[in-house]
Structures are given as C-alpha cells and as structure tokens.
Predict the 3D structure of the following.
Amino acid sequence: MKIEEEYGLPEIYFSKVTAANYEKSRAMRKIQTEITRRALEFIKSTEGTALDIGCGTGFSMQVLADAGFDAVGVDVSQDMIDIAVSKGFKALHGTFMNLPFDNNSFDAAVSISALQWIQAKSESELIRNYLKVLTEIYRVLKPKGECVIQFYPINATYHDLFIKAVKKTPFTARTVTDFPNNQKKRKTFIVLEKR
C-alpha cells in the first residue's frame, strides 16, 4: 500500500474527493488533534497569532484556536483550504517555500504531518529545499517565535538531512521523540526558536 506522499505532488493528490475524505476521517482528526496538542506542549507562548503550515482542512487550526491562539493556516491544496475556510478558519494558498505572509507575523507555528511532502531528486537538493522551508519559517516568525514540526520522514536519511539543514540556520533547535523504540507509535518533534 502506498503512503500519500508516494503519489507525488500534494496539490495533485489532494483533489476535492481526497480532501473531503480527509475531512470526514475520524481517525485522521483524532491523530492530527493529538499530535497538535502534544506539539503545543513545546511552545512557551500561549496567545497571539499561530500559523499552521500544511493546515489541510483545519484540524490543527482548531487545536490552536482552542488553546487561545488566533490561528491562520496555509496549504498547497486549494481543495483543503476551501474546507478549512468553510469551517470559519483563515487559510491561504501557499507553499512551505513561499509563505504568503509578511516578515515577523507569527508568535508561533506548527507543521503537523506535512513536511514529508517536501521531496527532491538528490540529497543536496533536499537539503536546499529544507533550507528554503526553514528560511521561510524563520522569516514569518516574530523574534523569539517558536515552531514545532512533526513529520513522517520517508526514511532515516530524510530525517537526518532535515536536522543537517536545521543546523545551518540561526534557529535554536531541539528534537523530542515520543516512543523512540516503537516504530508504529514513534513521533518526532523538531522544536525551533527564532533568536
């Protein structure tokens, strides 16, 4: 069985049908909600504006709003955005590498189960792509702003290359892994703080 990312570009994979199925999935809602709640445990800020990068239909934005943030989302799939907007969320079309926001706009950011869509044909290209992503996140965060990224790397190399890219940025960073010895339950969170 293929995982979603193996189908190629997310803007192609997430059609009206797949976006609607994603929104209807109780399992997806539960997983995304739990992961976002866990990610918020690493963010010191408890108010202000928070960006959900790869917001999908808004599961994580709901958690951010419930926690007291003014939640804003961005996603590459217009069909996913349309559903999020229909639920009352502010969500814009954009990519990890070209966030449609001004500099220093957000107190916090999360990206839950989305970064694995960043792919490349070589390791050097992947590092460059990750650096573009990190540069954009750094740009839109306010000073001392924090971002928590949780993703499912396609393999250990993707994770290691992301960490290598993080080390090339001005972010203060740490990694937290829940259930490190359980492949099925393992969740890794990269916690970034803008200096």
Notes: DSSP finds seven helices and seven strands in the chain. The radius of gyration is 15 Å. The first helix runs from residue 10 to 13.
